[in-house]
Amino acid sequence: MTDTGSDLTPPPGCPAHQGSVPLAGLEYQQSPAQLYRSLRREHGTVAPVLLDGDVPAWLVLGYTEVSYVTSHDELFARDSRRWNQWPAIPQDWPLLPFVGYQPSVLFTEGEEHRRRAGVITQALEGIDQFELARDCQIIADRLIASFVGSGQAELMSSYAHALPMRAAVQMCGMPHEGTDTQQLVDDLRISLDAAEGDDPVAAYTRVGERIQQLVKEKRDRPGPDVTSRMLLDPAGLTDEEIVQDLISVIAAAQQPTANWIGNTLRLLLTDERFALNVSGGRLSVGEALNEVLWLDTPTQNFIGRWAVRDTQLGGRQIRAGDCLVLGLAAANTDPQIWPEQHVGAENSAHLSFSNGEHRCPYPAPLLADVIARTAVETLLERLPDLVLAVEPEELTWRPSIWMRGLTALPAQFTPVVQ
Ligand code: HEM
Known about the structure:
Residues 1-20 are annotated as: Disordered. This is Cytochrome. One of its GO terms (molecular function) is oxidoreductase activity, acting on paired donors, with incorporation or reduction of molecular oxygen. By secondary structure, the chain is an alpha+beta fold. It has one domain (15-412): CATH 1.10.630.10. 45% of the residues lie in helices and 10% in strands. It is built from 15 helices and eleven strands. It has helices at residues 32-43, 63-71, 96-99, 110-125, 129-145, 155-160, 162-171, 179-192, 200-220, 226-232, 239-270, 272-278, 285-295, 328-332, 364-382, and strands at 21-22, 46-51, 55-60, 76-77, 152-154, 302-307, 311-313, 316-318, 323-326, 387-388, 410-412. The protein has a six-stranded mixed sheet with strand order 1-2-3-9-6-4. Strands 5-11-10 form a three-stranded antiparallel sheet. The protein has a two-stranded antiparallel ribbon with strand order 7-8. Strand 1, helix 1 and strand 2 (46-51) form a beta-alpha-beta unit. Residues 70, 105-106, 117, 120, 248-249, 252-253, 256-257, 260, 293, 297-299, 302, 352-354, 358-361, 364, 367-368, 371 line the site of protoporphyrin IX containing FE.
């Protein structure tokens, strides 16, 4: 039996009893495809795992099983308050920001979820994709202007993370630059992705206050933006609900889109099939973006779903209140859907935007595509001789089992005098 490291003895049948794999530490294995292959070989399509602090959960690795879990929310639901492990969770548990219940769209269920997600969907549908592309190009040009004269840049912080954050803030009705916006952008970064010495709790409080102020401003003077459309929706959400859901939209947009941009740039700058293309070869930016969603998807694992009652999945006995982690990267490379061993990117049937009731809401994946594509194309157009400033094997992935992204992407190019 695995020692859970907590006072709570797991009941028989719970994942902690069955040779569970500690997820913390696995992130240091740099090839997720290999990692998920060996997990699948040893544990099948649903693996017992231990989260930080040896808290038991299930990692769903099979394409069929992830599709099943996400399309049966009467069995596997989003409200984390039904988790049977809460007594073992300390106040400073590192995954608490993602798992702790908040009254936002993310944790609502059934009719209430359809109401909240419906408001987000119609507000996002109001975005003109051509205008979004133009706005992203302006943001891209401003960011590029800040480093173009030096001939070198660390593209993750100065470009890939910065661009979707500014685009998301602007979609919600704030200017993409200015002191006030800069403060919000900095606070969002700290609360989503704190560095050593940052205070994410204080930053998150300031984000809440700024979004509250934005909602108040838009109640008084609505405009052509996501916030105003959410306020004017006949569903009649309260200001508090809108503040919660706007923060969810910005947070849900920022990290995955940033890593989608970063992972695509890495592929384009390291893989010959694409490197050829940058200077007029065969494969396009669109193909690189799609390949990344299959093979290096930004949200590699998503936490999660909680079992509503005792049930079976992939031959495992799941108990009411068990936590299931959606293994999206593992599902995309499941040999069951790639029987010939070749994993390609011919279509978009991947699970990178998840599936079912809580999937990334239409049209968010299309908007993310506009943001990511404009970011990558604009950079390559403005800096046509862009190359890596290090050897490809020197690039390192972030030590995270949740987000697949680079720690840094140092690049160089001929400096442009402005
Ligand atoms: C404009 C950019 C984006 C916006 C506005 C956005 C918005 C959202 C929102 C509001 C949710 C919560 C849905 C709910 O619980 O009902 C969500 C979920 C999600 N999004 Fe996105 N998103 C964006 C980009 C992306 C990208 C680039 C990816 C990955 C490639 C992604 C993957 C996901 C996943 C995996 C979920 C979780 C779904 C689940 O619980 O099953 N999103 N997104």
